[in-house]
Amino acid sequence: MQNMISLDDGIGIDAMDVGWPLQDLGRRMARAAVMLDSRMRTLTAQPEEGAATAEYAVVLVAATGFAAVLVALLKSDAIKTLLTNIVKKALSV
Known about the structure:
Number of strands: 2
InterPro entries: DUF4244 (IPR025338)
Strand order of the largest sheet: 1-2
Protein name: DUF4244 domain-containing protein
Oligomer: single chain
Helix content: over 70%
Strand content: 5-15%
Pfam families: DUF4244
Shape: rod-shaped
Largest sheet: 2 strands, antiparallel
Keywords: Membrane, Transmembrane, Transmembrane helix
Transmembrane segments: 56-74
């Protein structure tokens, strides 16, 4: 049983019949399959881990741009006058 390369489906290949190069190839293929399975499980476990961070960054940039436009509007003389008149009218009631 030591000279057998075991595959997942239960089929064994006798290393004495096929030689060492094929046995080495079988081991490398089995290892590659395990590594691929591990990588796929890792990717599917949390597929959008970095997407949330990117979404937060986009929202933060948009909010900053909106705040800059709002500050620019509030600094203009027309808006200052309009807001001052609204506050004066509200306080006179």
